[in-house]
Design a protein that fits this description.
- It contains 21 helices and 21 strands.
- It has about 725 residues and is α/β, with parallel strands linked by helices.
- It has 3 domains: about 200 residues, Ferritin (Up-down Bundle), CATH 1.20.1260.30; about 270 residues, 3-Layer(aba) Sandwich (Rossmann fold); about 210 residues, DNA methylase specificity domains (Adenine-n6-DNA-methyltransferase TaqI, Chain A, domain 2, Alpha-Beta Complex), CATH 3.90.220.
- The strands form 5 sheets. A 9-stranded mixed sheet has the order 3-2-1-4-5-7-6-8-11. Strands 13-20-17-18 form a 4-stranded antiparallel sheet. Strands 15-14-19-16 form a 4-stranded mixed sheet, with no helix packed on it.
- Helix 4 crosses helix 7 and helix 9 packs parallel to helix 14.
- The radius of gyration is 33 Å and the shape is flat.
- It starts with a helix and ends with a helix.
- About 40% of the residues are buried.
Length: about 725
């Protein structure tokens, strides 16, 4: 199967998952769609295996076999090889056919054929077929999270039946091609779905999924230089992605894992089987690893883990922990509010002498004191098991934006007189609202770990004596200096700029003074930014309420203000995607401000922009050529309206009052166009806009002058302490 075909399979499966879930949350629908894909996989494996057995028989299609003796013989062979059994009438295609949904029709009507009970019976039968066999534990209650009676699938049994029948029919149309592709292809598609669900699951995602690039780093480190390993273990295995990743790096004899969450435990077992890991080669248990370890007495050659950051555990509240071999020798128990080092101690306890362990943890484990400081010192000073500390970029994990690190442990270290520090925190690319490690970033980390050499601003091999001098504080910045050389400040040039600021301020003050005399209001003297902003707000209140008014150049009153809809005086334009454009000098704006620059423009002129989605209450005034993304509206084609005046009108509107969404704040063109406002004569609009702009100019000048003054002070200090 080509990469293109693989991506097509992934896209097909995600489309089914995303489009057919209705109003059910993606995280809630996950267990159903992944469970049904797994059922289809088991069915196709059964069908192909049985057909191979039937090659010399008269009936060569397993779906048509009815002879009891033949079925019993096939069942016996299947249980031995596959670990489960499906009868012909229990095959995925047979059930889908009974559901009678035609997916090629535009309107998929409700089906009269009720299949929910059949589906439940089949899922139960799969589990029951394994009873008394070696595979029983691996299939026990495997489908328990598929609740076909849940009202989230539909209010009535008929509605639930129709939805499930549709999903099965769409899945049935997808050719898994198990007879001609590598087993990992469907497994990869399954992992792709798990990742997609994780990206929308928020904080919950951390419970079951580790980003693939982080998995790659961990698996490469624990298998470095090994053509095969006896076993691999993950004490917080989630969906099993970390364990399976090890299998891509080297040949693994057996996989072991433990998971606290029951739903995730089921997902992990399905994931193992879907990746064609034979039931005899994996042992996944469901229980609290720290309180009830299920693989006690075993040692593992490769251990990987991404446990929940700083989770609570019983600690001292469980007296048995004081004498537990995993924790008793360190002189202190990890605090009950932070189980990070408890997982470290568990991993060290189960690590083989020739093994490598790699665990993802929050940065706090590197420098927190108290009991954790005592444990950290013991691991380094007494055991000397810590081999490397790798700092990762922030915001790469689902459910948390805090930066994390990887700690690498070995019991028989080749380099036992130092610890390697790698700072990869700045190496990433943006991926939506998350950060992402690229293949090059991963390669750079692995090369630095392998070579174990100091690299300027990236890696450093710290002697154990240096770490002792730092009181066993492992804060990466103490060892890898990533700071840039400070630019020397030109005091003469800066002093000249400050003089120019004073000149500009005098001119702005003169302009503001003239406006204030016309309006018969006091002038805003001084440089207090808070008071200046308050003064501007007060002026806007009085101007837009018409409590104070400008006169024309002859001193005569302007015409009365008229009520108009915004749609009568301007046109709302929509932003567009810019990713197809080349780099250039035209700025691209989103609701958060400037994003990048491209070679084409969406509009050229004065415009007021307002958020369509997300930040909807921060208008922005733009001039010249620009491009806006689809979350940012822009205005154009003004009729008897001065763009800068419209900007101040937009600033005076309470946009949250017009929010049209219960989740992410949103505005529509229609809503904006229907907003009513009082509009003065264009000449009066210009005077108002010029006055308020002058105040804004003064605020901007003072802000910039303060920044320059701070820089000037910094330059003085540079010269004083050279």
């Amino acid at each position: 199967m080509t990469e293109e075909q693989k991506q097509k399979l992934e896209a097909q499966l995600w489309k089914i998952a995303n489009e057919l879930r209705g109003k059910m949350g993606a995280d809630e629908f996950r267990d159903y769609i992944l469970g049904f894909i797994f059922y289809k996989y088991l069915s196709e494996k059964q069908y192909l295996f049985a057909n191979k057995l039937l090659e010399t028989e008269n009936v060569k299609d397993y779906a048509l076999v009815t002879d009891k003796d033949d079925l019993e013989a096939i069942k016996e062979e299947t249980l031995e090889k596959l670990g489960y059994f499906l009868a012909p009438h229990e095959l995925f295609g047979a059930l889908t056919e009974k559901g009678n949904i035609k997916i090629d029709e535009e309107d998929e009507d409700a089906t009269d054929n009720f299949i929910l009970e059949d589906l439940q019976s089949i899922l139960n039968a799969i589990e029951q077929s394994t009873m008394g066999n070696e595979s029983e534990d691996d299939f026990n209650k495997l489908f328990e999270d598929i609740d076909l009676a849940s009202t989230k699938l539909g209010r009535s049994p008929a509605a639930r039946n129709t939805l499930i029948a549709k999903v099965l029919a769409h899945l049935d149309a997808v050719d898994f091609r198990l007879d001609e592709i590598e087993s990992d292809v469907l497994g990869d598609a399954y992992e792709y779905l798990i990742a997609q669900f994780a990206s929308g699951a928020g904080k919950k995602a951390g419970e079951f999924y580790t980003p693939s690039q982080v998995s790659k780093i961990l698996s490469k480190i624990v298998t470095l230089g090994k053509g095969q390993i006896k076993n691999a273990y993950d004490p917080a295995c989630g969906s099993g992605s970390l364990l399976l990743r090890i299998g891509r790096e080297t040949k693994v004899g057996e996989f072991f894992g433990q998971e606290l969450n029951r739903t995730t435990y089921n997902l992990c077992r399905m994931n193992m089987i879907l990746h064609d890991v034979h039931f005899s080669r994996f042992d996944i248990k469901q229980e609290d690893t720290l309180e009830e370890p299920q693989h006690e007495g075993m040692e593992f050659e490769a251990i990987v883990a991404n446990p929940p950051f700083s989770a609570q555990w019983k600690g001292k509240d469980n007296p048995l922990n004081e004498t537990d071999d995993r924790f008793s020798q360190y002189g202190a128990l990890p605090p009950s509010s932070k189980a990070d080092f408890a997982f470290v101690q568990h991993i060290i306890h189960q690590l083989a002498d020739n093994g490598t362990g790699a665990i993802v943890l929050p940065h706090g484990v590197l420098f927190r004191g108290g009991a954790e400081g005592i444990i950290r010192e013991y691991i380094i000073k007494e055991q000397n098991y810590l081999d490397a500390v790798i700092g990762l970029p922030p915001n790469i994990f689902y459910g948390t934006s805090i930066p994390a690190c990887i700690l690498v442990f070995k019991k028989c270290r080749k380099h036992d007189d130092d610890i390697l520090f790698i700072d990869a925190s700045a190496d990433f690319e943006k991926d939506g609202n998350k950060n992402k490690l690229t293949d090059d970033n991963v390669t750079k980390i692995i090369e630095a770990y392998t070579k174990r050499e100091s690299v300027d601003k990236y890696a450093y091999t710290a002697p154990l004596s240096e770490i002792a001098e730092n009181d066993y504080n492992l804060n990466i910045l103490r060892y890898v200096d990533t700071s840039e050389e400070e630019e020397q400040i030109d005091l003469d040039a800066l002093a000249g700029k400050l003089i120019k600021f004073e000149d500009a301020k005098v001119k702005v003050d003169e302009s503001i003074s003239n406006f204030c005399q016309i309006l018969n209001i006091p002038e805003p003297a001084g440089t207090n930014l808070y008071l200046l902003r308050l003064f501007k707000k007060g002026c806007m209140q009085k101007l837009f309420s018409q409590e104070i008014r400008f006169t024309d150049d002859k001193g005569k009153p302007f015409p009365e203000w008229k009520e108009k809809k915004l749609g009568d005086v301007l046109t709302i334009g929509s932003g567009r995607d810019y990713k197809h454009l080349a780099d250039g000098d035209v700025p691209v704006y989103g609701t958060g401000g400037y994003m990048t620059s491209v070679n084409e423009w969406l509009y050229d002129g004065e415009s007021v922009c307002i958020g369509r989605k997300g930040t909807i209450d921060q208008p922005r005034f733009l001039t010249g050529k620009f491009w806006t993304v689809d979350t940012l509206f822009f205005t154009h084609s003004f009729k008897s309206a001065i763009p800068k005046f419209i900007y101040y009108v937009f600033l005076s509107i309470d946009w949250q009052k017009y929010n049209e969404a219960s989740g992410v704040p949103s505005l529509s063109k229609k809503t904006i166009e229907q907003i009513k406002t009082m509009m003065p004569h264009p000449d009066e609009q210009k005077k108002i806009a010029d006055f308020l702009s002058a105040i804004d100019d003064k605020i901007a000048l003072i802000s910039e002058e303060l920044d320059k003054a701070k820089t000037f002070k910094k330059g003085l200090l540079q010269q004083m302490f050279v």
